Amino acid sequence: MSEKKKGSIIGLMPLIVFLTLYLATGFVSGSFDNMPLMIGISIACFVAFLLQKPGEEKVSFTDKVTIFCKGGGDDTLILMVIIFLLAGAFYSVANNMHAVDSIVNIGLTILPTRMLLPGLFLIGCVLSFSMGTSMGTVSALMPVAVDLAAKTGVNVALIGGVVVGSAMFGDNLSFISDTTIAATRTQEVSMKDKFRANFLMVLPAVIINLVLLSFVPMGKEVAAQVYDFNVINILPYAVIIVLSLIGMNVIPVMGLGILSGLVIGMMHGDFNLLESLGILHEGMTWMEDMSLIAVLVGGMVALMKYFGGIDYLLEKLTNKTKSARGGELSIAALVSLLDISTTNNTISIIAAGPIARNIADAQGIDRRRVASILDLFSSAFNGLLPYAGQLLVAGGLAGISPTAIMPYVWYCLLMLASGVLFIVIGFPKQFGSSK
Q1: Phi, psi (5° rounding) for residue 409?
Q2: What is the Cα Rg of the chain in Å?
Q3: Residue 283 placed within a domain
Q4: Is 367 within the bounds of a domain?
Q5: What was the pLDDT predicted at 227?
Q6: If 0-12 CB within 10 Å is exposed, 13-18 middle and 19+ buried, where does residue 333 land?
Q7: What is the largest CA-CA distance in the chain?
Q8: DSSP 8-class letter at 188
Q9: Less Cβ crowding at N or C end of the chain, within 10 Å?
Q10: Nearest to 110 by CA among 1, 239, 221, 225
Q11: How many structural domains does the chain have?
Q12: How far apart are the first and last CA of the chain?
């Protein structure tokens, strides 16, 4: 019989140092902005390079560099970097060819002032469900949200929270989302069945969020009127939605959205061909910090995993599971802590999936329900982490700290509450029991 792989809390030291330093700086200084994420992550990476396995042969610095580079070059992270760059380019093009103004003014024309925030949330839900990516949704809607905040006087951090929350709706539920694919494959269930169980779990969160948003007062009262807009200018957004609905990959979807914006902008005389190159470059440079942070985090997590940090989490969360309800709570805690550690909900689901399946089989939990729990909790936490991609992009496009947006991602907070409630009450029964 093979010996069970042992974890070590020493492997979690980079994460512990980062969180301690980040939180301590924020509380002592009164502002989390005083600890730039790049510096905090760099310090944590330095700690990761100091790690050694107790009682085992010393790992050379060269080997650690190799591990770090492989982690930072993970295909999922490189895809995230590409999406970061495309997000910046799309925002820059949409802003310069007035797509943002047009779509905001259409919303202001159609929706009464009190319904602007619920309307923005629903638009984001439809878009993220269609695209299957929270990153693409944030990049497409955040510029609209920033302009909407300026026109209505709504706190830009609050409206950013609306966008991030709506983005995580689709990340959690979309049929083409990486998290859905990972959750259903690791649990060997169909996407349709997982969606049915998952949607019931988040439906209360959606309804409560819409009600809460409808009561948020506008800083400026927007009189009912027809605002100037050009329907042609919203074509880049239409391209993204339509192509996403037919199942095209997010990379060509974003690329065609950018291309359509460039063509329309040049046709309307907003910029010429040479100027468009500068616009694309400017947008991409806005995302350089976020891209580098993603690579650094990937490398740090690889070292944490090598030195037993991730296995330590798995050990502590799964060794005392004795009932279906306890099993479900353990699965939720496991994938949540993995996501907090890795800032990647897809990787978290892949790592937790096999263990979650074993717990489900041992405790008689329906795997469709397990797939829903894995996706729900990992997506919710990914929308709440100030060092994860969604809040990094939202903060970068809004020009504010990701931590300023975090308290306003109400939908993700409601997802967590709804998920715990459904585990405790064991509903819906047809998707597994909770003893």
Answers
A1: -85, 70
A2: 22
A3: yes
A4: no
A5: 62
A6: middle
A7: 74
A8: T
A9: N
A10: 225
A11: 1
A12: 32
- Tokens 């955040």 belong to 142
Six-digit token pair at 406?
């975090």
216 located within any domain: yes
Structure tokens at 391: 């809040």
DSSP letters along 120-133, please?
A: HHHHHHHHHHHH--
How far is Cα 60 from Cα 157, in angstroms, rounded to an integer? 44
Q: How far apart are CA 165 and CA 170, in angstroms?
A: 9
Which amino acid is present at 113? T
| Placement of tokens 């005389």 in the chain | 269
Residue 385 near residue 336 (C-beta atoms within 8 A) = no
The rounded distance, in Å, linking the Cα atoms of 411 and 134 is: 14
Q: What range defines the domain where residue 105 resides?
A: 75-156+210-288
CB 97 within 8 A of CB 261: yes
Low-confidence ranges of the chain (pLDDT < 70): 1-6, 30-33, 76, 100, 103-105, 107-108, 112-113, 130-131, 176, 219-227, 241, 244-245, 247, 314, 317-318, 321, 427-435
In terms of Cα–Cα distance, which of 23, 390, 16 is closest to 179?
Answer: 390
Rounded CA separation 375/201 (Å): 11
In tens, the pLDDT along 318-376 reads: 677 677 888 899 899 888 988 887 777 877 887 778 778 878 887 788 999 999 999 99
In 42-186, the DSSP E strands lie at: none
Q: Would 235 be classed as within a structural domain? A: yes
